[in-house]
Write a structure and sequence with these properties.
- The complex is a heterodimer of chains A (388) and B (291).
- Chain A is an alpha+beta fold.
- Chain A has helices at residues 5-14, 31-37, 66-76, 133-139, 157-164, 173-192, 242-249, 268-280, 297-309, 327-341, 356-364, 376-387; strands at 2-3, 22-25, 43-47, 60-63, 80-81, 91-92, 96-100, 104-115, 120-126, 144-148, 195-206, 211-213, 217-220, 253-256, 261-265, 287-290, 315-322, 347-353, 371-373.
- In chain A, strands 1, 8, 9, 10, 11, 12 and 13 form a seven-stranded antiparallel sheet that branches.
- In chain A, β8 and β9 (120-126) form a beta hairpin.
- The radius of gyration of chain A is 26 Å and the shape is elongated.
- Chain B is an alpha/beta fold and 291 residues long.
- Classes of the chains: A alpha+beta (388), B alpha/beta (291).
- Chains A and B meet through α4, α8 and α12 of A and α4 and α5 of B.
Chain lengths: 388, 291
């Protein structure tokens, strides 16, 4: 679950990680009051959307007069913001964060992730803050420092020193102390809230010597939400694709893509491989949809329902490997779904696994029009033919 | 031969009284697996499919001499179940459970570091040595005893591959689903090392997917140390970055984990990469010199 910047900063503020004074607004009428509470000039007006690349997309404005705060807010609220992560339609900005501007002396990068290879949390620090970390990693990898954390002992002060004493030119003693406490607090936030990512970029040192988190990204491990219930209210369904939201309610794994071939598959790996096969046959997948390794008739009906709601879909490929669940049962599920939803699109079905002959027989003998493919390659070709 | 599990494995099912646990206990017994005990706290003294149920794993080890565990415990309690199994000295622990918090797995991985237990999973279909035993949820009948090893991060995709192998007349020594989570107990390299020493295994199918760098690391190991043919397949060439594709671990993030990079690393290591899933059985036949 992704958090908005203002939500992550709210957590930071309560956890000993300094943040600028700021106020969230959802209506331009609130701006006048906010500019009276939040000191400026300048002010920073920041669109609150989950997508990255807000700065370059025009979602962050630095302004110098109260009336400009209002104009910038009005400019952003209720309108789509296009960034490199949103696609061409952009995402609607529903909330704007207005913050006091600070005078930046230096910018650092600080984050925590789970390092998969070592199976440990890692804290990553760079003195080259304020730009994309991927860019730093490719151009000046020596400027990225990493500390792995043994879960049995947690974050140790010497690890902060390992990260901080390499900074060139060195920091004042005061800044070193603040930075050390920020790192310890970041570790505490990361572990107590079951984060999978926390990123502060930039972490700034101001001209008056304060260390302050100017931006905040936070992602919570979905698998841990059962014990992080107090964070659930941070979930913002407006940020999600409506079809993905519907799939979530049905406990289906669905991700909307740009193509026109709807795909329904049981199992995530097989679903990805099926998308790849569609592409290789010269068509484009409209979605990733995993109805679960042990798909039931009911899950298949719901899957078909979601695919049909996507208007761009011109053909549907159902690829089911009947393992524990037999192909004849799955064929009946597809049939029931097709009947119920009155499918008018070409439906290509590829069944494999236990009782595959019985399954194919059921589809062949039905009064509905199916293309039954004998293998994956044929299925993909049939699909490509239907949409070309 | 085979690796890790065989006809001598005595299996304990942790979470045996749950819906999944009971269902798959029945299927494992049908396949021929020696399911010797089950554990569900508070249900000790009962039986499931004639298998005695104990309150603690320690009891199951003491009374039934079990040496392999299969875990169906729900996510909030799964880390405890894995550590309980390792503490009781079980040699092989298979965790089927999907949805364990990553930070719980960080603790588990750290605990297991100096133990002799081999953890397979979590979020996996398990392990099967065809004709001998199956510890997990994969459909038994698609398998055939033989010379190919299968190591995979996926479930149904593995069944698809196994089905193609069996259809092509290539049997399997042992098939392992290593799990779709970001942190798993054992990865490609661990199993490759064991398969290297297994005389029955003549070739390996490696099924990877987007996310992490386990395939790149495996490619490096294979190139340097592995002396049997390997055929790889990577799912997710069309997956968009930043999205979790079903499995918790299947995500391209921070410029890492792309299918393209994995395929390139494998090819650079001299490994045959099958680009189209539909052709995997055929490719395996060619590489094994059987076509």
């Amino acid at each position: 679950m992704k958090l908005h910047e203002y939500q992550a900063k709210d957590i930071f503020g309560k956890s000993g990680i300094p943040i600028p004074n700021g106020q969230l607004v959802t209506d331009v009428d609130q701006v006048t009051k906010v500019t009276q509470i939040i000191s400026g000039a300048p002010w920073v007006v920041k669109a609150q959307v989950h997508a990255g690349g807000r700065g370059k997309g025009g979602g962050v404005r630095v302004v110098h007069y109260p009336y400009e705060v209002a104009t910038a807010t009005e400019d952003l609220l209720g309108k789509p913001l296009v960034t490199k992560q949103t696609g061409t339609d952009g995402v609607i900005v529903n909330q704007v964060l207005i913050e006091e501007g600070v005078e930046i002396e230096r910018e650092f990068y600080l984050s925590m992730v789970i390092d998969r290879s070592s199976a440990m949390p890692a804290m990553i620090f760079s003195q080259a803050g304020g730009m994309e970390i991927e860019e730093v990693a490719s151009k000046t990898p020596e400027l990225i420092l990493k500390e792995y954390i043994d879960p049995a002992v947690g974050w140790m002060p010497h690890q902060s020193r390992n990260l901080i004493y390499g900074i060139d030119p060195p920091l004042s003693l005061g800044s070193v102390k603040t930075l050390m406490s920020i790192m310890a607090n970041l570790y505490r936030v990361f572990t107590t809230l079951d984060c999978s990512l926390v990123e502060i970029n930039p972490l700034a040192i101001t001209k008056d010597g304060k260390v302050i988190a100017l931006d905040a990204k936070m992602t919570i491990d979905d698998n841990a939400l059962f014990r992080q219930k107090e964070l659930l209210h941070f979930d913002d369904p407006r940020e999600k694709d409506p079809l993905e939201l519907m799939a979530e309610k049905y406990s289906l794994n669905y991700i909307r893509l740009d193509g026109n071939v709807g795909a329904m598959v049981n199992g995530a790996g097989l679903a990805m491989a099926t998308m790849d096969v569609i592409k290789m046959a010269g068509a484009e997948p409209a979605n990733f949809l995993d109805v679960g390794g042990g798909a039931s008739e009911d899950m298949i009906t719901k899957g078909v329902e979601i695919i049909l709601k996507d208007r761009r879909v011109k053909a549907i490929l159902v690829n089911i490997f009947g393992g524990i669940l037999r192909c004849d049962v799955l064929a009946r599920g597809v049939l029931a779904a097709a009947r119920k939803r009155m499918i008018r699109l070409p439906l290509i079905v590829r069944l494999k696994g236990t009782n595959v002959e019985e399954g194919r027989e059921i589809l062949r003998n039905s009064d509905l029009q199916f293309f039954v493919a004998k293998d994956l390659a044929e299925a993909a070709e049939l699909v490509a033919k239907q949409v070309s | 031969m085979s690796i890790l599990v065989d006809e001598k494995s005595r299996v304990v099912v942790q979470g045996i009284t749950g819906r999944e646990g009971t269902f798959h206990t029945k299927l494992m017994i049908e396949y021929g697996t020696a399911v010797a005990a089950g554990v569900t706290p508070g249900k000790g003294g009962k039986t499931v499919e004639d298998v005695p149920v104990f309150n603690t794993l320690k009891d199951a080890v003491d009374k039934e001499g079990v040496n392999v565990s299969c875990i169906f415990v729900p996510p909030p309690f799964a880390a405890d179940a894995i550590i309980e199994a390792a503490s009781a000295g079980l040699k092989v622990i298979v965790c089927i459970t999907e949805g364990i918090p990553t930070l719980d797995m960080v603790k588990v991985a750290s605990f297991l570091e100096d133990k002799d237990s081999v953890l397979i999973g979590p979020n996996c279909p398990g392990i099967i040595s065809p004709g001998k035993t199956k510890v997990g949820i994969m459909p038994g009948p698609i398998h055939m005893q033989g010379e190919m090893a299968v190591i995979s991060r996926s479930g149904t995709l593995t069944y698809e591959v196994v089905d193609q192998l069996t259809g092509a007349g290539l049997g399997q020594s042992t098939c392992i689903g290593i799990g779709g989570d970001p942190i798993i107990g054992t990865t490609f390299i661990d199993h490759l090392k064991w398969f290297k020493e297994d005389p029955e295994t003549k070739g390996v199918i490696l099924i990877g997917e987007i996310g992490g760098t386990a395939e790149e690391e495996a490619a490096e190991y294979i190139q340097k140390e592995f002396n049997k043919p390997v055929i790889a397949f990577i799912a997710g060439q069309t997956a968009p970055p930043g999205r979790r594709m079903g499995h918790a671990g299947a995500i391209i993030s921070g410029g890492q984990g792309r299918a393209e990079d994995k395929i390139n690393a494998l090819k650079a290591g001299g490994i045959t990469v099958c680009m189209n899933l539909g052709n995997l059985g055929q490719t395996a036949l060619e590489v094994m010199g059987r076509s």
